[in-house]
Amino acid sequence: EARWVAEIRDQATQTDIATRIDKVMDAIERENPVLKGVLPKSFAASEIPQRNLTALIGIVDGITFGREDHDGRDRLGQVYEYFLGKFSGIEGRAGEDYTPRSVVDLLVEMLEPYKGRIYDPCCGSGGMFVQSRKFLAAHGGTGGDISVFGQESNAETWRLAKMNLALHGIDGNVGDRADSSFTADLHPDLRADFIITNPPFNLGERGSTGWGRDRLMEDSRWKLGKTLLLPPATNANFAWILHFLYHLSPKGYAGFVLANGALSNVNRSEELAIRKALVEAGLVDCIVSLPMKLFANTSIPVSLWFVGRNRGATEKHRARENETLFIDARKLGHLISRRQRELDAADIARIADTYHSFRSLNPARPYADVDGFCKVATRADIEQQGFVLTPGRYVGTPEADEDELPAAERLELIRKRLVEELDESAAIEMRLRDLLKQVKGDE
After folding, report:
1. Phi/psi of residue 213, each to 5°?
2. In whole angstroms, what is the distance from residue 428 CA to residue 434 CA?
3. Residue 385 contacts residue 393 (beta carbons within 8 Å)
4. b/e 330-368 (16+ beta carbons within 10 angstroms → b)
5. Is 315 exposed, middle or buried (0-12, 13-18, 19+ CB in 10 A)?
6. Contact call for residues 266 and 306 (beta carbons, < 8 A)
7. Of 44, 140, 231, 415, most Cβ neighbours within 10 A?
8. Which is it for strands 223-224 and 323-328: parallel, antiparallel or unpaired?
9. What are phi and psi of 250, to 5 degrees?
10. At residue 15, what are phi and psi to the nearest 5 degrees?
11. Which whole-number Å values give the CA distances from 311 to 251, 257, 323, 344, 359, in the listed order?
12. pLDDT digit of tens for each residue in the chain (443 aa)?
């Protein structure tokens, strides 16, 4: 009752084709419990013209699914990912549910998740899991070598992830519902070997609904050792970092995307305190500045962070515990449209190989600083820079001159800086009011 040829293709010109598609979706969900409540069953109610559905069915029917594609699963998955990327561009969600393929490739190539538990607490449409599986297959591994866990707060995007995993044959645990990783952690006991993720940029800025700090003031996730480090209520960037660290296994590594403000903001005392604590604990392994325009819907400059729980696991690697690798990749990549840039395979290989040389301390491929591209800095070097982690400061490249940026990007940077100043002002005002209340109470 759900076969493509008999129930959809051969009925494509019928006036009730939308209703037939809904019934097919019902049948698939009935036989596949993992997809229960996930598939769209609203074609009949959508008022999509029949001719559009008929034409779409014809296009999909023209796609060749052969055994060279592992029974068509890889090809169908590629089609699905293509449309996820296109719809992300149309919807304008600033990369919220879809991370550009080249950024995902770079994260996976750098972390090399050969075996273990992979976790993405803001998994979007599941792209990190899909690329991890592809990396594993390319290196001779099997699906049984990794297990994937995820969570997504947006119900529509969570359904996209469930479908994406099903299309790629990945048996992943993305929870039984969509919910916030902060206020409803669906994997509280998970300790992952790899965390690969792209959290929402600057979640909780002024005018948004926040990320839930007021309900989590004593949460154990905000502790580094015995120190409680409360992330600011107005921005969840450092809440995400502490959440990742909490869910890492003793030898685990995390690689993630963050807006550049997290590298250098010194006006927010809470952020500076957490960044300082991360460096002093020897957790920051590598920072990579990425080119502008990688994300279709935002000009906010971003970087990759890599943090590890046990960087000095062996005597050979103990020296690295006191060091951080900085890579400035802002000049890499090429434009694929007027508005969007992409890293190619050579760019990804250059960045990943540099990181692997730093990590491995292998004499066969020794690491060396490259002026303007990469530099290893000690903890003392970072302290001298006021715990600012912007790679340009260390590799010898200047920060982007705002006057050289396009007007729209320059306006976005100015807007973001103004929002940060307003947030800081509001926080100071609240603290002052609290102190005045205490003084009045003492009297």
Report:
1. -60, -35
2. 10
3. yes
4. bebbeeeeeebbbbeeebbebbbebbebbbeeeeeeebe
5. exposed
6. no
7. 231
8. unpaired
9. -55, -25
10. -70, -20
11. 8, 20, 10, 29, 9
12. 999 999 999 999 999 999 999 999 999 999 988 898 899 899 999 988 999 999 999 998 987 765 554 444 566 666 777 777 677 656 544 445 568 889 999 999 999 999 999 999 999 888 899 889 888 888 888 778 899 999 999 898 899 899 888 888 888 999 999 999 999 999 999 999 999 999 988 887 655 567 999 999 999 999 998 899 999 988 899 999 999 999 999 999 999 999 998 998 877 889 999 999 999 999 999 999 999 888 876 777 899 999 998 876 666 667 788 999 999 999 999 988 877 889 999 999 999 999 999 998 777 889 999 999 999 999 999 999 999 999 999 999 876 544 445 555 567 667 766 876 787 777 788 878 878 877 766 65
Amino acid occupying residue 117 = R
Which pair of tokens denotes residue 68? 């060279």
